[in-house]
Design goal:
With 352 residues, this protein is an alpha/beta fold. It has 13 helices and eleven strands.
Length: 352
């Protein structure tokens, strides 16, 4: 009797969401993903459109009904005069565990292996794998939310420094936070612009502070005594993470004025490896919060999960534009979730 074989299908889609739809509606519940890879367009098309996803899926055959075998007479074995030989055991075969459809879809959507590994450590992961893809993605995103909620809230202290590498947008990020405090929260603030070995030009910061009516200082001695609820924002020169000497100077300068809150500003459009190096540098500097800039230039939001989930520093906000007076998204988790999980399974309202 011939055993039915699995059927394999190859299809190209634009997004992981579209792949979920094809699996569910075209191939049925027995389909599972074998592999997913990005496919770039050819010629000029690669510069005009986003890469597609090539998905290879397998549809398992229906299990055949067990055949009923006729009983066979047992032949009497002749007595053996030789010693029994030990049975030869075949060498164990190491089988690689195929990636589940859920893990493949998460990876195709840009979720890193480390974040997927955190999801797989959830006691409910095996149950999610048995669900239809859309429902499984919903539960996976809810699992991320539970991980996010385990973070202990860390409010800003009375002295807050914005630090980062040159080009990260730290001064713009400071201005966004300052505008939100003064114009929205009606909070009083003072701005201090510190120099290290490298000069830290005023640029437009002093003009912006004057427009908001915020005191501006170039020396710590010029900073007035802070009243209740008043905050001191500190702008420092950009420091390259590889520069050990400047990093030590920056740490000493912030320690000397009792800066408890240190916001690491990162350009989210940078490569993931650069962002991870900046994150490690910020941890060495004692950063308590992060702020992501240039979100308007970002196409793959999923890479931010590695920099957001505990034990990473508390994300303060997302800067989505160049305007120093706005474009500030403080609901960081929901903003990233909405751009990394398909809208039909986005559980923002259900989990609110």
């Amino acid at each position: 009797m011939n055993t039915p074989e699995s059927s394999r299908f190859r299809f190209v889609v634009r997004t992981a969401e579209e792949a979920v739809t094809v699996l569910r509606e075209k191939l049925g519940p027995r389909a599972r993903v074998i592999s997913v890879k990005q496919v770039q367009g050819k010629g000029l098309a690669r510069f005009l459109s986003a890469p597609s996803l090539e998905v290879i899926a397998e549809v398992a055959p229906e299990a055949p009904a067990p055949a009923q075998e006729k009983p066979q007479p047992i032949a009497e074995a002749a007595p053996s005069t030789s010693s029994p030989e030990p049975e030869s055991q075949p060498a164990p075969t190491l089988l690689s565990t195929p990636e589940s459809a859920l893990a493949s879809l998460l990876r195709a959507g840009g979720i890193s292996a480390s974040v997927i590994g955190r999801m797989q450590s959830d006691a409910a992961w095996k149950r999610w794998e048995q669900m239809p893809p859309a429902e499984a993605l919903t539960h996976a995103s809810l699992g991320l939310r539970e991980t996010w909620r385990k973070r202990a809230p860390r409010p800003l202290s009375q002295r807050v420094a914005f630090v980062g590498s040159p080009g990260a947008g730290k001064t713009t990020a400071l201005c966004k936070q300052l505008a939100a405090d003064v114009l929205v929260r009606r909070r009083q603030a003072v701005v201090l612009k510190l120099d290290l070995e490298n000069a830290n030009p005023d640029d437009g910061l002093v003009v912006f502070c004057t427009a908001l009516g915020v005191p501006f200082a170039r020396e710590i001695a010029e900073v007035p005594e802070l009243g209740p609820g008043q905050v001191l924002y500190i702008d420092v020169p950009g420091v390259t993470p590889r520069d050990v000497s400047q990093t030590a100077q920056l740490r000493d300068a912030l320690d000397s004025i009792g800066t408890d809150s240190r916001v690491l500003v990162m350009n989210a459009a940078y490569d993931s490896d650069i962002l991870k190096n900046s994150w490690a540098w910020g941890a060495d500097l004692g950063c308590s919060h992060t702020a992501f800039t240039h979100l308007d230039e970002l196409t793959h939001w999923a890479k931010l999960w590695d920099l957001m989930l505990p034990p990473a520093p508390t994300p303060l906000f997302l800067g989505t534009g160049q305007s120093i007076a706005g474009d500030l998204e403080e609901n960081v988790f929901d903003a990233v979730l909405a751009r990394t999980f398909p809208a039909p399974v986005n559980p923002l309202q259900a989990a609110a």
